[in-house]
Design brief:
Helices cover 51% and strands 21% of the residues. The chain is an alpha+beta fold. It folds into three domains: 177 residues, no CATH class; 68 residues, Roll (SH3 type barrels), CATH 2.30.30; 85 residues, Alpha-Beta Plaits (2-Layer Sandwich). The strands form five sheets. The chain has a five-stranded antiparallel beta sheet with strand order 8-7-6-5-9. It has a three-stranded antiparallel beta sheet with strand order 10-12-11.
Length: 386
């Protein structure tokens, strides 16, 4: 039996209601860490087997905040429901005349609070779903990294984005239906011309979206490939709904619309067997013919003997330059990552310098020969003239 003090009414609520309100909030504030630990242990048992390849604590870190928010909302709502005043007060009232009958529409504070909590509860539920999608994608991304194929590395983030966008769209319509009490089917049906206008306004976005599907179906490249398009060279890092991200050799990130990735000529350097190298070596005009022949032959032999070339190098006397005798060097390096390719190219260039110097040759540079011709001075009227 409750003491009379608990039944004392203050501002429309009994002391007992206030005590229950405060007790629920204090209970949560005092034991929220323990509740979080229990939730973490439960999630580890539930999802630990699915994500055994990765650290299951990642999943706990992803879910602990939205679940904490969800439980906090429940307890706050439970605490507020212990009070009756002034939540039942009318905060908005409107009188309308329908068929000569006066109709009164009123909204109370408790109705507004209920709608607010429903909105926040739906947000927290879909927040949890999105975090679960993130963890599942994280597990599949790790499994994809263990395979030799790069296609699954490209597919996992794309599917992740697709599922998350679909979930957010569903959340939007669910909130419209349950919070704002809008007939979603009627809304979708009534889009009509407005939907067509939106589609036309989003024409470029739709083209990029279709471009992303084309990339996945046609597979002109996959994540990790080194590509060249519109003068941009780099490694493909991600293929999204709207754009493809390319990391250049300068470590800058270039974002290219998917429409351009399929409409513009693209060179996939990863799928070719070799990298072609072509340049000229300019020797001075004073270099003997026999030395030029020896230099050309030794460069050819060295490049063909290199383990990273295709043994098809050719060095020829190409042309008489403005200030040099030009040897054309043409060879191919086996396709590999960009940095090792530069190192091999550098190694061969240094060897060419050694070969030229060992054969008493020298590299030409732009020069000009100026010939001065002096006339004998003549004397006119006693003054010399030149």
């Amino acid at each position: 039996m409750n003491p009379p003090f608990f039944n004392t009414v203050f501002l429309g609520n009994s002391v007992k209601s206030y005590i229950l309100f405060a007790a629920i909030l204090l209970l949560w504030l005092c034991f929220k860490k323990i509740f979080s630990r229990w939730i973490s242990q439960f999630l580890l048992m539930l999802f630990g087997r699915f994500g055994k390849e990765v650290n299951a604590a990642v999943f706990v870190e992803l879910l602990i905040k939205p679940i904490h928010f969800f439980i906090s909302l429940d307890l706050i709502y439970l605490a507020i429901n212990q009070l009756n005043y002034p939540l039942n007060e009318v905060i908005f009232e409107r009188k309308t005349l329908v068929d000569k009958v006066q109709k009164i529409t009123s909204i109370t504070l408790i109705e507004v609070v209920d709608k607010l909590f429903v909105f926040l509860m739906l947000i927290s539920v879909f927040w949890i779903i999105l975090r679960i999608i993130d963890f599942v994608a994280h597990v599949f991304a790790y499994r994809a990294s263990l395979t030799e194929s790069k296609e699954d590395d490209q597919l996992v983030p794309f599917v992740k984005e697709l599922v998350k966008i679909t979930t957010i769209t569903i959340a939007f319509f669910v909130i419209l239906g349950y919070v704002f009490e809008i007939n979603v089917l009627t809304l979708i049906t009534g889009l009509g011309i407005g939907g067509i206008a939106i589609a036309l306004a989003a024409k470029e976005s739709l083209e990029n979206l279709l471009g992303s599907f084309t990339i996945f179906v046609d597979k002109p490249f996959v994540v990790g490939d080194f590509v060249k398009i519109n003068g941009i060279e780099g490694t493909v890092e991600k293929v999204g709904f709207r754009s493809t991200r390319i990391r250049t050799a300068e470590k800058s990130l270039v974002t290219m619309p998917n429409k351009k990735m399929i409409d513009t000529p693209l060179e996939n350097m990863t799928v070719r067997n070799y990298r072609r190298i072509r340049f000229d070596v300019g020797l001075t005009y004073s270099t003997p013919v026999e030395s030029i022949k020896v230099i050309a032959q030794q460069i050819t032999d060295y490049i063909n003997g290199h383990e990273k070339t295709n043994n098809d190098a050719i060095v020829t006397f190409e042309a008489f330059g403005a200030s040099s005798l030009d040897l054309q060097v043409l060879y191919y390096i086996e396709m590999m990552d960009y940095n090792p390719y530069l190192k091999i190219k550098e190694e061969i260039n240094f060897k060419i310098i050694d070969i030229v110097q060992q054969n008493h040759g020298d590299f030409a540079f732009p020069t000009q020969t100026v010939i001065h011709q002096y006339d004998e001075p003549t004397q006119v009227g006693g003054n010399p003239k030149t």
